[in-house]
From TrEMBL:
InterPro entries: OxRdtase_Mopterin-bd_sf. This is Oxidoreductase molybdopterin-binding domain-containing protein. The lineage of its organism: Bacteria, Pseudomonadati, Pseudomonadota, Alphaproteobacteria, Hyphomicrobiales. It comes from the Bacteria.
């Protein structure tokens, strides 16, 4: 019985060490990779990509100036459009239907392709020109131009504005 307790304590200790090892990266946003994958509607994997901030910066960038419920006054958000990221697989003749966005806090939201086809939805990598720390909703934040049109400034679209994004899983036909 005592050996099992010692084994359990070592397992907990090892787990804490693993979490502690990731803490500096999570706190500073250093070299946090964004996983971008493509799957079929039935879940069959098609491709996987991993981007760090430098690689995301090589993609076309857009800017949205908008106020959000989580910021004070209009803010400037920059980053690659979701349409650009969706196009990584679309160039192979497949139509992207949606993207499942997951966060470091284990939240998930699904965004239909019609959103980025109709609106300029971006994966924000910067807020007012500065990279975002995880504790400040970074390193990546899905941003909608909610100030541009009244019909976008709703709870439905605000719920899709996931922050602390760690992965994008595009669902294709």
């Amino acid at each position: 019985m005592q050996a099992a307790t010692i084994g359990f304590r070592w397992a907990v200790f090892a787990l804490l060490l693993m979490v502690a090892a990731q803490a500096p990266a999570l706190a500073t946003g250093a070299r946090l990779y964004l996983s971008v994958s493509f799957v079929t509607v039935s879940g069959l994997p098609l491709s996987d990509h991993a981007f760090d901030l430098d690689q995301l910066d090589l993609l076309p960038q857009d800017r949205i100036i908008t106020a959000t419920p989580w910021t004070h006054g209009p803010q400037s958000f920059t980053g690659p459009p979701l349409a650009t990221l969706a196009g990584l697989e679309a160039n192979r003749g497949r139509r992207v239907r949606a993207v499942r966005v997951s966060s470091w806090a284990d939240w998930t939201v699904t965004i239909p392709a019609s959103d980025w086809e109709r609106l300029n939805v971006i994966l924000a990598t910067r807020l007012n020109g500065q990279t975002m720390r995880v504790r400040d909703k970074g390193p990546y934040w899905i941003m909608y131009p909610i100030g541009d049109t009244r019909d976008v400034d709703t709870q439905m679209y605000q719920a899709r504005m996931m922050w602390q994004v760690k992965s994008l899983e595009f669902v294709v036909e």
